[in-house]
Amino acid sequence: MKAKATDYLVYDEATGTYSENPEQRVRDDVEKHHWLHVLKIVIKDWRLYLMLIPMILIFLFWRYFPMYELLGCFKNNETASKVADQLFVGFYHFKRLLFTTGGSELSLTFWQAFRNTFVISFYGLCFGFPMPIILALFFNEIKSNVMRSIYQVLTYLPKFMSTVVMTSLITLLLQARQTGATEADPGVVSRLLAAIGLISQETADAGLLFDPKYFRAIYEISGIWETAGYDSIVFFAAVIAVSPTSYEAAQIDGAGKMAQMRYVVLPSILSTIVIMLITRIGSLLNVGYEKVLLLYDSRTYATADVISTFSQRLGLENGDTAIASAAEMMNNIIGMLLVIGANTIAKKASNVSLY
Amino acid sequence: MKRKLEVSELIFKIISYTFLTIFAICCLYPFLYAVSAAISGRDVVEANQIVLLPKDIQWYAFKEFFFDNSFWNSYTNTLFLTVFGTLFSVITSILGAYALSKKRLLFRKGFNFFLVFTMWFSAGIVPQYINYINTNIIFDAIGITDDKWLVVIAMGMAAMNIILLRNAFEGVPSEIEEAARVDGATETQILTKVYIPMSKSTIATVTLFFAISRWNGYFWARQMIQNSNEHPLQVYIRLKLESSLNLTDSVWSKPYAVYSGLYALIVCAIIPILIIYPFIQKYFAKGVNMGGVKE
């Protein structure tokens, strides 16, 4: 069939102008998505698609294949070694995990880990989140650049230690009284706390890290110690963006420091606070499992065990991978809902999408 | 005209100086203590008489590590992992981000979703471990099981960093690319001569993020490498800590306390970071402020 001019353009007699034939757009679309056409584009631009391949392969291999293995939580892992060959058992493992049937300890441990995950991250939100903001406000009070840089560098310092170095340091500073081949008093921080009466001497001797009562406090305080200075960077950037004239205007109106904070500083850093808060909520369940793993002990499971460490212990050490996958699945789905929810709120609240 | 400070402002100033001083001391103290404890005499450390300054100075703990092959071995392994791992991650990320930044890329939305989905949903440690065990046959065939190269190619990618790079590449004006294309530049030349130089600071920040995570990497290095000659520094430190804290029955006959050895190890792990810290600090600050990304 031969193409006619009217296939592409339509003449409008009333205005005397040509406009595009709407049918032609459909034809164009069909041709554009014809596989041969697609192939032609890809071959012409092969370098661009070649560049994608390493990234795709890495993500496929290390991120998407594990998701397939995650399906093992619906299968009986004793029937075959490969997930594809295993028998489907539905929600059997979830039932074992969630409900105490036949007096099993398993679901009790799971719920304990579940509660700990939320409590630890909630405490982090309550105490860990405001700290960088407070620090940023305090940094702003120091007018001398040299002094401020010194304070900032010192407070960023702990962020640069690896998790292993940091947890080793915490372990050593809080160590128990040693007897036997090496005799030593409790660690220096334990002794300091005992001296000012925050903890009893017996607790210090037995090792502060081995007392379930103090694990969360240690976790949160060391978390603040590690990240507060570094996290204050973004808030400090927002605080110094406030124009000095705004302060002057407030001062002329007789505003004291608290009023200046309330009416000048807070409104201008509010959007940053909201974004950071939403990000934080999105990663609420991402409790640093490595840090818990390196700090906890069988004596502190009651307050320290989180879902990641629970499933890691179950899967890697006891070999019960199906139920460990079920626990991970629960964690992942709640985590994903939080991330998507936080992102949607962020989009609505500030027109800023985080991902 | 200088205005007199109001009482409330003065109080706030005093509070902020006091608080910051205390906080800064808290940040610094553990490291100073670690140095002091590492170089103090055995009796002093075991009786825990050090509060801040070292007493009865000895250098045996450092000397021992200095002449210990396995320590230097782990250091070399960490350097190897940091250098090659970072190179691998950065090159892969730049290539992927460049392709994703192109509007003409087919299925661009699909590829982006492929990337972003891993940020929403991550399988978790146990499935990743099972996947690693199941796919071990492939690495066996290439000959990189129980090897540093396996850690280099595994677990090194972060979707967030690729998105940062993609956004930086999207910020490069398309007119420059067209001009280069008219002048006969190939795709590779456009990437290396136009895009990479124009987004240097983002690339530096992303490189830094990768390097830090490689230097700090512990869990997967420990799972994937059983051979103690291949252990990186973090695994070495952790194993040393675990073995030193369980020394209840054996006899410790070295001229320094057990803890001095551990503190010396920690100091050794921190020193290289402290040396390069002044040079990389500004990129860190930049990276944090890039956090709020727009689509």
Report on the architecture of this protein.
The complex is a heterodimer of chains A (about 350) and B (about 300). Chain A has helices at about 5-10, 20-30, 35-45, 45-70, 90-100, 105-130, 130-140, 145-155, 165-175, 190-195, 200-205, 210-240, 245-250, 255-280, 290-295, 300-305, 305-315, 320-350, and strands spanning about 10, 15-20, 75, 85-90. In chain A, the strands form 2 sheets. A two-stranded antiparallel ribbon of chain A has the order 1-2. A two-stranded antiparallel ribbon of chain A has the order 3-4. Helices cover about 70% and strands about 5% of the residues of chain A. In chain A, α3 packs across α4. In chain A, β1 and β2 (about 15-20) form a beta hairpin. Chain A has about 350 residues and is mostly helical. Chain B has 2 domains: about 5-60, no CATH class; about 70-235 and about 280-290, MetI-like fold. Chain B has 15 helices and no strands. Chain B has helices at about 5-40, 40-45, 60-65, 70-100, 110-120, 125-135, 135-140, 150-155, 160-170, 175-180, 185-200, 200-215, 220-225, 235-245, 260-290. Classes of the chains: A mainly alpha (about 350), B mainly alpha (about 300). Chains A and B meet through α3, α4, α7, α8 and α9 of A and α1, α4, α5, α6 and α9 of B.
Features of this protein?
heterodimer; A: about 350 residues; mainly alpha; MetI-like fold; two-stranded antiparallel sheet; two-stranded antiparallel ribbon; about 70% helix; about 5% strand; B: about 300 residues; 15 helices
Largest interface: A-B, 104 and 112 residues
Order of helices and strands of chain A: HEEHHHEEHHHHHHHHHHHHHH
| Integer-rounded radius of gyration of chain A | 30 Å
User: C-alpha Rg of chain B, in Å?
Assistant: 25 Å
Uncertain residue ranges of chain A: none
Morphology call of chain B: globular
Query: What global shape of chain A is seen?
Result: flat
Helix and strand run of chain B: HHHHHHHHHHHHHHH
Under CATH, the homologous superfamily of the domain at 105-350 in chain A reads: MetI-like
CATH A-level architecture of the domain at 105-350 in chain A: Orthogonal Bundle
Helix content of chain A: 55-70%
The portion of residues forming beta strands of chain A comes to: under 5%
